Amino acid sequence: MTGEKRRVRIEITDGVVYKATDDDGKSSDPYVQIGECDDGKWGKKLLETPVQKKTLQPKWNYTGETIIKMKQDIIIRMYDQDTFFDDYVGQYITYYNGTTNSMELKLSQNGEAIPKMVNATVNIKFTDLGSA
Ligand SMILES: [Ca+2]
To answer: In what residue span(s) does the C2 domain sit (predicted)?
Structure first.
């Protein structure tokens, strides 16, 4: 049912960054955040991976648990960690449908389902752990 709170395990295994954002033009320090999406905007942060240093093929092998409402829009977004201001890489906007699901997300500037320009990909698995 829409709005029902579900406990969810989220595994963020790895990904690819297509455009290096570090000053040397060769690498990035990527990490991924997942948050609630309210009216197309970033809302409450739910999870965040550690940073993978100096790589365009990050392997986070991260597992976290959170609570997401059914049909709640969520944003999966990637940043490159920098000393002062982290660079935004891209995002994907979807919603939680209550099923166990592995997918490769294509992250873009605006997070649309079929982006014209893909900035990065992220492999992610949602496992539904029941009502919360
Ligand atoms: Ca960096």
So the answer is: 1-109
| Paired strand residues for 27 | none
CA of 13 to the centre of ligand 1 (A): 20
How many angstroms does the Cα of residue 15 sit away from the middle of ligand 1? Answer: 16
In a domain, 100, yes or no: yes
What's the gap in Å between 20 CA and the centre of ligand 1? 9
* Residue-wise pLDDT tens digits, 76-107: 999 999 999 999 999 999 999 998 999 999 99
Tell whether pTM > 0.85.
yes
In a domain, 87, yes or no: yes
Provide the residue range defining the domain that includes 80.
5-126
Q: What is the CATH number of the domain that holds 88?
A: 2.60.40.150
